[in-house]
Amino acid sequence: MVMLLSGILAIRLFGFIESFVFYFPSREEFANEPGVIDVTFSGPDGRKLHGWLLVPANAGAGSPAVLHVHGNAGNVSSHLAYSRFLADHGFVVFIFDYRGYGRSEVGRSRPRRDRMMEDTRAALETLITRPEVDRSRIGVYGVSIGSVFATALAAERPDVRAVVAVAPFSGWANIAHTHFPIVGPMLVRGGLDPIDSCAALGDRPLMLVHGSLDDIIPPEHSARIERAARAKGVKVTRLVVPEAGHNDIVFQSEATKQAVAAFFKESLR
């Protein structure tokens, strides 16, 4: 029993299960999409990270900007379509790859939660130094597991003025229980749980977007986040997209894109 408990503790502390079950980076070669600016920046440990910047054609100095924190698989090339529409609405958009993803340098080990959080912080610092960006009008846009890092970043950075979380899970133990009842929460530790991060936003608005048919992260997760955030006085907009699953949620209807763009326009005006 002591050996079993010690093993479970080690797995929780070092994130072995999390690293292999939650993260699926792709390092396949890809070409730059039309209209993107290729950006290389440094993480806190000097590791070279990669991202794409989209600047609207009519943007001048002092444009509002959105940091896109993408999901757990692929790289920027497979996630750009989730946020490209925001550039059409006048926002500077920055999407980046965590270490080990795409063209970003490989880390010392498999992806880890704490290091992906560090990369997200570095991406924000890179975005706010761009001459096209008004650093007083910054929003974050997290999709799926990216919502973990986007909401945590907003919770610790009051200069992030608005948050959109698409298909977020409420907490690590909760999503582990969703897929592996009882055993899952024993193997995956908490920390950087969106339900706590969103409740700490104070007077900054939060939008939650979820597909009604999402069977990877069921919509009840965003409902839990909404309840916790509202209980702390956060202004929450929750959009459940009919007939949408997990990966097609943003593409399901033009109305969804319009709703997300309208939220950022109102919040960052």
pLDDT average, as an integer? 92
Determine the CATH superfamily. Alpha/Beta hydrolase fold, catalytic domain
Described by the principal axes of the CA atoms, the overall outline is globular
Regions with little confidence, pLDDT below 50 for 5+ residues:
1-15
Give a count of the beta strands, DSSP E runs of length 2 or more: 10
For the biggest β-sheet, the strand order reads 2-3-6-4-7-8-9-10
> CATH top level?
Alpha Beta
CATH arch. level architecture: 3-Layer(aba) Sandwich
- Give the terminus-to-terminus CA distance: 58 Å
Give a brief outline of the structure:
The chain is built from 11 helices and 10 strands. The chain is α/β, with parallel strands linked by helices and 269 residues long. Helix 5 packs across helix 6 (146-156).
Defining traits:
8-stranded mixed sheet; alpha/beta; 269 residues; two-stranded parallel ribbon
Q: How are the secondary structure elements laid out?
A:
Blueprint: H1 2-14, H2 16-22, E1 24-25, E2 36-42, E3 48-54, E4 63-69, E5 73-74, H3 76-79, H4 84-88, E6 92-96, H5 113-128, E7 133-143, H6 146-156, E8 160-166, H7 172-179, H8 183-187, H9 194-199, E9 206-211, H10 220-231, E10 236-241, H11 254-267
Parallel strand pairs: 1-5, 4-6, 4-7, 7-8, 8-9, 9-10
Antiparallel strand pairs: 2-3, 3-6
Structure description:
The protein is 38% helix and 22% strand. It is α/β, with parallel strands linked by helices. The chain has one domain (2-267): Alpha/Beta hydrolase fold, catalytic domain (Rossmann fold, 3-Layer(aba) Sandwich), CATH 3.40.50. The chain has an eight-stranded mixed β-sheet, sandwiched between helices. A two-stranded parallel ribbon has the order 1-5. The radius of gyration is 18 Å and the shape is globular.
